[in-house]
Amino acid sequence: MKSRELRCPFGFQRDALLLLCVLWVLLSPISLVGQTPTDEAIQLYQRGHYGEARQKFQELYRKDNSAADVLYYLGKLEPNADKSLEYQRRFLSLHAHHPKADEVLYAVAQYNFALGYYLTAAKDYQRLIRTYPNSSLVPDALYWLASSKLAIGAADSASIYFRRILEEHGQSLMVPWAKLGLVDAYFIGQDFHQARIQCQAFMEYHVDSVLLPIALYRLAEIHEALGEREKAKEILQRLLQSEPTTFQNEQARRQLTEWGWTGDRREANRGKQENTFAVQVGAFSNRLNALNLQAELITLGYQAEVVKKEDRHRVLYLVWVGSYQSREEALREAKILERQRELPYHIIRK
C-alpha cells in the first residue's frame, strides 16, 4: 500500500501559487503600473530639487492647465510673485473644495498683506475663516485679519478678532501674539490705561516668552504716552540687559540716547560681540511687513530680529535669523530654513 501522507494534493499547490501571485500584484503596484509624471515631480519637490520639479510641473501644465497638484506646486515654486499668484488664483477658482485650498487662499492673503493691500487681504482672511471653519489655519487667519484692521486704523474691529483667538483657539500658537495685538489695539485707540493693564498681564503670564522684549518696549511706549517718562526709561534700561540683542534693544538704545542717556554702551552691545553671522531672509521698505515676517518666524521657533538700515536715501527693514560663529554654520541653517519656508536668503556679517 502506498503512503498518501507524503503527497501534496495538486489543488493545494495551485491555490498556494495563485495566492502568491495575488499578493505580489497587491504589494507591488509601482513595479507593475509605474509612477505618474506628477508623482515624479512631487518627489523631486520633496527631495529639495526645486528647479527640476518646477520644470516638470511646467511641462505638465502645458499638457493640462487645470490639474490641482500642478497648479498647487507651481504656485509654491514660481519665483515670480505675480505669476505665482496667477497659479494660486486659478487653483482656487477650479478646486475650491480641495484639501489644500485653505493653504492656497492663506498664501494669497499673505501676499496681499505683504504688499500693503490690507483691505484685500482682510477679505481673503475672512473668506478663509468663513469657507474653511475647520482649517488649522483659522487662528492664523484671525490674527492677520486683526493685523489688517490695525494697519488701517480700525482698532475696535481688530480687538474683536484678537479676542476670538483667545476665546475660540486657546491652544493656538497665535495666543501670545493675539494678547500683544490687543495691547496695540488699545494703544492705537488711545486707551493707554487699558493698554498698560493688558501689557502687564501678558508679562506676568508669559515670563519666559521670546516675545517679552516686544512687550517691554510696548510698555515703555505706553508709559511715555501717559507722561511717565522716568518709568519708561527704567523699562528701556531693563530691556537693554536682555539677551540676545533684538530689534527692540536697538530701539531702546536709540530712544534713551534721544532722552540724554549716558549708560554703559559696552554692556548694551555685549550680545552683538559674541556672534557675527546671520541669515537675512527679507528686506522691506514697510516696517510692518518686516515685523510680520519676524513674528511668523518667531512663532515657528526661530530667533528673528528686524534691523533698520539706510541705503541710498532709502530706509530698509531687514529680517535677520539667528546668530552664528561662522559663515558655514549660518549657511547650514539657511538651507534648512529654505526647505521649510522657501525664503530667499543671504548670509550677512553682523
Brief summary of the model shown:
The chain is built from 19 helices and 4 strands.
Architecture overview:
- Helix content is about 65%, strand content about 10%.
- The chain is built from 19 helices and four strands.
- It has a four-stranded antiparallel beta sheet.
- β2 (about 305-310) and β3 form a beta hairpin.
- The N and C termini lie far apart (about 95 Å).
Q: Count of DSSP E strands?
A: 4
Q: Which strand order spans the largest sheet, edge to edge or round the barrel? A: 2-3-1-4
Shape: globular
Overall pLDDT score: 82
Topology:
Elements: H1 10-27, H2 29-33, H3 37-46, H4 50-63, H5 68-77, H6 81-94, H7 101-114, H8 118-131, H9 138-151, H10 155-168, H11 175-188, H12 192-205, H13 212-225, H14 229-240, H15 247-258, H16 265-268, H17 270-274, E1 277-284, H18 287-299, E2 304-311, E3 314-324, H19 327-341, E4 346-349
Antiparallel strand pairs: 1-3, 1-4, 2-3
Helix pairs in contact: 3-4, 4-5, 5-6, 6-7, 7-8, 8-9, 9-10, 9-11, 10-11, 11-12, 11-13, 12-13, 13-14, 14-15
Quick tags:
350 residues, alpha+beta, 19 helices, 4 strands, globular, disordered N terminus
